[in-house]
Description:
Blueprint: H1 2-22, H2 25-48, H3 54-82, H4 88-117, H5 119-139, H6 154-167, H7 169-185, H8 187-199, H9 204-232, H10 235-255, H11 259-286, H12 293-322, H13 324-338, E1 378-385, H14 391-407, E2 412-417, E3 424-431, H15 434-443, H16 446-457, E4 466-471, H17 474-479
Antiparallel strand pairs: 1-3, 1-4, 2-3
Helix pairs in contact: 1-3, 1-6, 1-12, 2-3, 2-5, 3-12, 4-5, 4-9, 4-11, 6-14, 7-11, 7-12, 8-12, 9-11, 10-11, 10-13, 12-13, 14-16
Amino acid sequence: MSTVASLPFFLLTIPAGAVADMADRRKILSVMNLWLASCAGMLAIFGFLGALNPWIILVAVFCAGAGFSFYAPAWSALVPEIVSPAELPSAVTLGGLQLNLSGIIGPAIGGFLLMQFGASVVFVLNAFCFLLVTGAVLSWRRSNLQARLPLENFFEAFVSAARYVRYAPGIQVVLARDVVFSFFISVIPALLPVVGLRVLNLDSRGLGCLYTSMGIGSVVGAVFVIPQARARLSANTLTIVANVLVACVFVLMALVSDVRLFWVIAALAGLGWTLTAAELWVAGQRAMPNWARGRMNATHMMVSQGGIALGGLIWGGLAATAGVQFALLAAALLLLFSLPLAFPLSIDFTRQLDLEPAPLSTHYHRMFRAPGPSEGPVVITMEFEISSTDRWKFLRLMREMRLTYLRNGAFRWQLDEDLEKPNHFRMEMLVASWSEHLQQHERMTRNELQTWERVWRLHRGKGEPVVKHYLSRNRELLMRRNITIPIEDAPVEDLPAKV
């Protein structure tokens, strides 16, 4: 059942992230809540009919997992639209808090209702709760307007996600930190049951108490520790302190055999996990533009799950071959050795990012015919005349503009200097279609627009920099190979040897 529940997240999270950016996220959440209510309702119907069997349950669990795999990226992308940037850390902490509380209280309530009324009634109540959430989502009205440009197709959405990660250094830093943290934190879900069942000789109820203690530690951290820590420490420093705490937890898990003391250790594990995960998640949200938030959140989830899966395999294998105690101490030592990576991969830079949408004006689109959305490829050139004193400043800014255009839609970018006119530059980029070029303007953020305006102000020529757009006609030439040019209509020097 665990495998069937997690399989949709592995298969569908990235496509779900693309859908979250292509469609209205509010509608996605509403549809997915209705889908989840249908899954619970189906179980309730089969339960009342006395027809529940393992295969029906597995199918329903898979369908529910598919619904949650589409729900998670859309919801994660929607949160920054609901709260202000200043409120985002608190909103993320509150989201983690309700998740931990539901993990503690939900199974207890479900178990009580199951004993009193039976599984079918529990499924009915579950379906009703999903319908309540649907009503709450539909009652919310977004304040920002959606872009009215043609939507990307599914393949373009996939490509743009990979392209954005490749050319966005901020996202790369956050994802790298996610991988490292997930790899080491996987020690807890991989080895805590082993320690509880084999070392502490707990039964299933005692193991459940350990997980409850870990949830309580997460709640205490979210309510009392995180607000105080954020007021005194930077995000990067807080993650380092939390990782030191997690390393200490690993050591204590290897050395302590008293059950009551182990409950405290489990609470500390939940505290350290929450501190680091919350800061990395906030940093990720700050480093994502709104137009790619669904795809980037899906990538964030996939990377984290991949790190946990890889870590669980390695730490579990090490415990099986060298012993649980050796695996825990090795994990603690390697985690401490990895802490220096937090300095070159600091996440503090995300506080200065301003990725609010700032669409670029298209006033320089002066042309005799506007291309159709699917026409392309399109070549865009910009010509700059720069003062010799601003040369290196211009080149430095153009390095940033290269990353901006490549992650926002261009698949080729280059800068050339005129050999006959020093400090005369020509920027050229190639995009797949006219629609993709218009999307570039819509995807511009405030930070990117500021850089673009600084480049524009360095121009020293007459008027504004010259901007030109070229529509490729190679496809037409290749499609019309049998075209002929009348001899009497063509100059001799223009006659082709073979057309």
